[in-house]
Amino acid sequence: MPIAAVNGTDLFYLEVGAGLPCLVMHGGLGLDHTYLHPALDPLGDRLRLVYYDQRGNGRSGRPPLSTLTFEQFAADADALRAALELDRVAVLGHSYGGFIALEYALRYPRRVSRLVLLNTAPAWDFEEEIRANALRKGATPEMLAAIEIGKLDDERAQRRAFQLTAPLYYATFDLEAAQRLFRRTQFSIGAALRGEELQRQYDTVARLDRIRVPTLIATGRDDFITPPSQSERLHKGIRGSELVIFERSGHFPFVEEPEAFFSAVRGWLARAG
After folding, report:
1. Tens of pLDDT along 8-44?
2. Residue-level pLDDT at 166
3. How far apart (Å, rounded) are the C-alpha atoms in residues 31 and 46?
4. Most-buried pick from 60, 131, 186, 240 (CB within 10 A)?
5. Is residue 26 within 8 Å of residue 54, measured between CB atoms?
6. In angstroms, what CA-CA distances link 39 with 97, 150, 273?
7. How far apart are the first and last CA of the chain?
8. How far is residue 68's CA from residue 232's CA, in Å, rounded to a whole number?
9. Strands 215-220 and 112-118
10. Is the dihedral of CA 255, 43, 243, 77 positive or negative?
11. What is the distance between the alpha carbons of residues 65 and 111, in angstroms, rounded to a whole number?
């Protein structure tokens, strides 16, 4: 099992493909890289994908939860880059992983060559919109309660809550596909609770104009939790960025519209040079 010892903990990582090196940052927190691998593997024809689990998540180490900060996540990403002897890297972040990708791009701008932000947001200040979106998609009171991670006690409850709310994350829900996407996931309630605590102070809006690297922003039209309005904020704030909205997708366009998704990313990579 490939492990990089960085900053007082161990990071599990997995490499797929060849080409431009790309750190792949998973969402959650409290999830791991497995819902992205092998789903994103087709990009291995253009990218050297480096999937990894954030500290406190998945197959990586369990340092004190107090060390899970945006500054430390960014420092870990750069330490992993250095451990792999990479000069500059593309960075792809999905959902909460997009929060970390943005922090990394802002804190280590000379190390980032490309930035891909999937189904993410520049700040966590739109909870009323999330609730309205969930209700529009038919969320029950139980689903609304399950979205609140802070009320969960352990990984078993975390998995049950995730299964209960799964239909909200898709434009067209397919139970079998959803179960397959997360069948190998190692949940971490400690990281999930810490992630919810951190996101209350997450706000990159005022710093977005500092990002100068080619940036692709993509989301699904029916993404209830990081809706198109948030991708549009990112697009407005990051000069020269490109925005793609997949019309028949929710939070996982690489699952619901894979052909359109991979075509869009490959096309952007070709244009970005």
Report:
1. 999 999 999 999 999 999 999 999 999 999 999 999 9
2. 95
3. 26
4. 60
5. yes
6. 16, 29, 24
7. 33
8. 28
9. parallel
10. positive
11. 27
Tokens of 62: 């369990």
The residue among 27, 28, 5, 14 whose CA lies nearest residue 76 is 5
Q: Which amino acid is at 206?
A: A
What's the pLDDT score for residue 273?
76
What is the pTM for the complete model shown?
0.96
What's the token pair of residue 267? Answer: 């096309």
| pLDDT per position as a tens digit, 233-264 | 999 999 999 999 999 999 999 999 999 999 99
Alpha helices in the chain (DSSP H): 70-83, 96-107, 127-136, 141-147, 155-165, 175-181, 189-199, 228-237, 253-256, 258-272
pLDDT of res. 152 = 78
Joined tokens for residue 207? 């710093």
Q: What is the DSSP string of 18-49?
A: -SEEEEEE--TTT--GGGTTTTTGGGGGTEEE
Tokens of 64: 């004190």
